[in-house]
């Protein structure tokens, strides 16, 4: 069965965005982009909530077309156009977007059906609301966290509404020159 890995930038105090969704505190640079590109390069499925999907759709399909496109823009735009996108949304209606599946109900059953298909890990990008739903359904198999050296004090937490303790095993760490630290966890087998 394919695993669902939550990919998220997070503050030291556990927030994924400021109180109004601000993400201007996230540190990214070419070193982080290169590292992420290696890991997601073989990925074939990306999972998004509607808000994150809308943000991605507004930029990545044409990002490589700009005369000032960075290496990251070119590589990620190509990956984004090829990857199968799964969107959790109660408001997004059937769309004609290529390579996109929208799930609006029976989330656990439909996600598990996708997990049973051939392919690599399913990467859940950003999308705190979708992440909260999948945590509550017990569908997240790992967390790929980029801890940014900032304390926000308030905002949108990554972990909320947890009913039962979730034990994790640390499988990788990496320190970047920007001060960001990657923590890669898998959910421990019970």
TrEMBL record:
Signal peptide annotation: none
Classification via InterPro entries: DHFR-like_dom_sf, RibDG_C, Riboflavin_Biosynth_HTPR
Name under which the protein is recorded: Dihydrofolate reductase
A Pfam match: RibD_C
PANTHER family, alphabetized: 2,5-DIAMINO-6-RIBOSYLAMINO-4(3H)-PYRIMIDINONE 5'-PHOSPHATE REDUCTASE, DIHYDROFOLATE REDUCTASE FAMILY PROTEIN (AFU_ORTHOLOGUE AFUA_8G06820)
SUPFAM superfamilies: Dihydrofolate reductase-like
GO biological process, one term: riboflavin biosynthetic process
One GO MF term: 5-amino-6-(5-phosphoribosylamino)uracil reductase activity
Domain Bacterial bifunctional deaminase-reductase C-terminal stretches: 2-180
């Amino acid at each position: 069965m394919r695993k669902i890995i939550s990919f998220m930038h997070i503050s030291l105090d556990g927030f994924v965005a400021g109180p109004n969704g601000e993400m201007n505190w996230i540190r990214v640079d070419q070193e982080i982009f290169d590292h992420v590109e290696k890991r997601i390069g073989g990925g074939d499925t990306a999972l998004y909530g509607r808000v994150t999907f809308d943000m991605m759709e507004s930029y990545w399909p044409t990002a490589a077309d700009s005369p000032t496109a960075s290496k990251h823009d070119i590589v990620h735009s190509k990956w984004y156009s090829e990857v199968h996108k799964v969107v959790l949304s109660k408001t997004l209606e059937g769309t004609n977007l290529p390579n996109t599946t929208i799930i609006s109900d029976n989330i656990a059953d439909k996600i598990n059906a996708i997990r049973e298909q051939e392919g690599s890990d399913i990467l859940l990008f950003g999308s705190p609301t979708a992440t909260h739903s999948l945590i509550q359904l017990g569908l997240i198999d790992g967390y790929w966290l980029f801890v940014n050296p900032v304390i926000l004090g308030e905002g949108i937490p990554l972990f909320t509404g947890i009913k039962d303790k979730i034990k994790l095993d640390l499988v990788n760490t990496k320190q970047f020159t920007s001060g960001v630290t990657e923590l890669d966890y898998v959910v421990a087998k019970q």
